[in-house]
Write a structure and sequence with these properties.
The protein is α/β, with parallel strands linked by helices and about 350 residues long. It folds into 2 domains: about 5-70 and about 135-220 and about 325-345, Rossmann fold (3-Layer(aba) Sandwich), CATH 3.40.50; about 225-315. The chain contains 12 helices and 15 strands. The strands form 3 sheets. A 9-stranded mixed beta sheet has the order 3-4-2-5-1-6-7-8-15, sandwiched between helices. The longest helix is centred in the N-terminal third of the chain and has 19 residues, at about 10-25. Its EC number is 2.7.1.130. GO terms for molecular function: ATP binding; lipid-A 4'-kinase activity.
């Protein structure tokens, strides 16, 4: 924690008080939460920064989309538009945001919508001719105006909410007690071989309720990179000179997976809108070498860089083995929890 953040501690106390009063008013029904007659799953976190919401939403889409009509609803962070938008053929990262556009491109069978007002967004989705049967709320843990039927809380292995402080001293959007609203807590971005002893230690530090389930996941990188018209095995380009570009919160694992001593790594802020100057810099550094970026950045860079040079590396969320179960059993248990909720839920309450 740097000195400035320590000096801002009184403001963190004030911010925590304000958010606690807000949560109290929602808990007591003084501020109204709205429920809807279909299963709604909210995925979010207590802290700002990258906890892996996008791969978790994609995991749920893969799990549910074969059996149900799915819609995702996001705020559409840094989009150049306002209000409710349902993604369609002319949509792009500028109009709906990079992560929703990624969902739209990868999963053509689902509905992808954005609206900062989640209540209005849900109402708009339900007014469509083809109504969704399940809505996945992206980054909506603090959006208490909507009462989801199931909450998944993510916390990063390297930045557990139990060890954090309120903004601006720390990164918490609300107090640690907000975790009590979660049905499932997932510690994300873990080492794939996280020891059973450390898992047990983290469980104790998080102080779960008896009703809550805890899982540990890691980021699994694809063994291929993908361009507009072709894919290449990572092994084939591991030692080739290349430019690696990332506009995500914590790019170090992405770089370390691909990087060799000949590579240039360019790191930009999360959800960065690439300028003409940025594009020129990337082109000048790359020359004729390939450019590899994250999947989220690819949807914003595509069309601005030569298609024969530009590639992205997909990721997925995978489960870590536990002391009493293999990784496959952990994923099956998680899947069962989600499917049981969806199968038995006719109304969020």
């Amino acid at each position: 924690m740097n000195l400035l953040r320590k000096l801002l501690f009184p403001f963190a106390i004030l911010y925590g008080l304000i958010t606690s009063i807000r949560n109290f008013l929602f808990d007591k029904g003084i501020l109204k939460s709205y429920s809807f007659a279909l299963p709604i799953i909210a995925v979010g976190n207590l802290s700002v920064g990258g906890t892996g919401k996008t791969p978790q939403i994609e995991y749920l889409i893969r799990l549910l989309s074969d059996k149900y009509k799915i819609a995702t609803l996001s705020r559409g962070y840094k989009r150049q538009s306002k209000g409710f938008i349902l993604a369609e053929a002319n949509s792009n990262a500028a109009t709906i945001g990079d992560e929703p556009f990624q969902f739209f491109q990868k999963f053509p069978s689902i509905q992808v919508a954005v609206d900062a007002d989640r209540k209005n967004g849900i109402e708009q989705l339900l007014s469509q001719t083809e109504k969704p049967e399940i809505i996945l709320l992206d980054d909506a843990f603090q959006h208490r105006k909507v009462k989801a039927g199931f909450y998944i809380l993510l916390t990063s292995y390297s930045d557990l909410y139990s060890d954090d402080w309120m903004l601006p001293t720390g990164n918490l959007r609300e107090s640690r007690s907000g975790a009590n609203r979660a049905n499932v807590i997932i510690v994300t971005k873990c080492p794939f071989n996280l020891s059973f002893e450390e898992q047990d230690d983290i469980k104790k530090r998080l102080k779960l309720l008896k009703s809550q389930e805890l899982y540990f996941t890691f980021i699994a990188y694809d063994d291929c990179i993908y361009g507009e018209n072709r894919k290449i095995k990572v092994d084939e380009i591991q030692h080739a000179a290349k430019v690696l570009v990332a506009g995500i919160a914590k790019p170090e694992p992405f770089f370390s997976y691909l990087q060799n001593s000949n590579d240039v790594c360019l790191s930009f802020p999360d959800h960065h809108n690439f300028t003409d100057k940025d594009i020129l810099e990337i082109k000048n550094l790359a020359q004729n070498n390939i450019i590899i970026t994250t999947e989220k950045d690819y949807v914003r860079l595509k069309g601005s860089l030569p298609s024969e040079q530009l590639f992205y590396l997909p990721i997925q969320s995978s489960f870590v083995s536990g002391p009493d179960s293999e990784a496959s059993e952990r994923s099956e248990n998680f899947n069962k929890t989600i499917l049981d909720y969806v199968g038995t839920s006719s109304r969020n309450s």
